[in-house]
Write a structure and sequence with these properties.
Layout (H helix, E strand, L loop, with lengths): L9 E3 H8 L3 H9 L6 E3 L2 E5 H8 L8
Antiparallel strand pairs: 1-3, 2-3
Helix pairs in contact: 1-2
Amino acid sequence: MTRDLSEVRFLTVAEVAEMMRVSTMTVYRLVHAGELPAIRFGRSFRIPESAVAAAVQPPVADVG
């Protein structure tokens, strides 16, 4: 189930903010709240592209 790290694309906070059309501060808040998984490299964060895709997916509601 785990993927090789060479297959994972990591994005910067600025790239994620641009993709989600929010401020960088909003991305930092999501990371610090644990709502957006990230890896810390020194003083900067990298977010897996798959985590961003999962975060912007609309929730599936069971209506009926």
